[in-house]
Every structure is written in C-alpha cells, then in structure tokens.
Design a protein that fits this description.
The chain has 151 residues and is an alpha+beta fold. It has 3 helices and 8 strands; from the N terminus they run ββααββββββα. The strands form 2 sheets. A 6-stranded antiparallel β-sheet has the order 3-4-5-6-8-7, with helices on one face. It has a two-stranded antiparallel ribbon with strand order 1-2. The protein is globular, with a radius of gyration of 15 Å. It starts with a strand and ends in a 14-residue tail after the last helix.
C-alpha cells in the first residue's frame, strides 16, 4: 500500500498529492465556542474514541471535524447542545439512533447520530466507528493497486 501524502501547510493526510481540502489551522475549542457548557468536553470524549480506532488523524475544520485513516471516514458537525457524529459504511444501518442517512454511492453510505450526553458515546457507536475505520477509512475492500496511488 502506498503512503498517503501530507499537506506541507496544514499537515492534513491526503490520499493523493494536492487533493483539495480545507487547508488551515482550526481548533476544537473554536469549533465549539458557541456551544452550551459541557459540549466541548463531550466532543473531546468523541475525539478520544476516534483516536482509539487505530492510526488516525483528527482535524478540526472551520465548520466540522473530520477523521482520516487513508481517507476520511468519520467526523462530527457541531450543534449548540451537542453534535452529530458522522461516519460512512458500505451498508445501511437499521437503528433508531440514526437520525439521517445520505447515499453517496455503494461505497459511501453516510450515517448521522445525535450525541448530547456521554451515554451516547457507547459500545454500539464505537463498533460502527470501528467498522467505518476498518472498511472505509483504510479502503480495505480495494485491491492493493487501487488504494490512492501517489504520483
């Protein structure tokens, strides 16, 4: 498997050289500046969960947070009283916890879960995130030669 490329300006991992991305230095604190008390700490718990999945890079951007292994596979979108945890799978989940589903094709089925308390960061969510990391983030289903070659 070929190595990912890192942006020399912001350090973002990218599957190919000069791939468009949100190049900048943003923080989790800035992302949650307008949130209710306790939401930033909840987001930090989620970031720790993401980091426990394997070799990942967690990047705060201007309006969201993304998590990258070889490619982006998960993240969050801030809300005043919590956030929406986001992750992609190759399959659809059937759970009342999924508040939104978006079909970006057979290899990218986005799922959104509302997170408002530490109890929402449970083993079920961690399992979905681990599957997202292992299958989508690491591109485990692609033949070796098709995994984002860097020229």
């Amino acid at each position: 498997m070929r190595a990912v490329w890192s942006c020399p300006k912001c350090g973002a991992r990218l599957v190919s050289r000069n791939l468009w991305h949100s190049c900048g230095q943003f923080t989790l604190e800035a992302l949650f500046a307008g949130a209710a008390p306790g939401v930033l700490e909840l987001a930090r718990e989620y970031v720790a969960m993401l980091q426990s999945l394997g070799d990942v890079q967690v990047l705060a951007q201007k309006t969201r947070l993304v998590c990258v292994a070889r490619v982006r596979f998960a993240g969050l979108s801030p809300r005043k009283r919590g956030f929406q945890a986001t992750f992609a799978l190759h399959r659809w989940l059937d759970s009342p916890r999924i508040v939104t589903r978006v079909d970006y094709g057979p290899r990218w089925r986005a799922h959104y879960v509302s997170v408002k308390a530490s109890t929402d960061l449970d083993d079920e969510l961690r399992g979905w995130l681990q599957e997202s990391h292992d299958v989508v983030g690491l591109q485990a289903d692609l033949p070796h030669g098709r995994r984002g070659a860097i020229p």
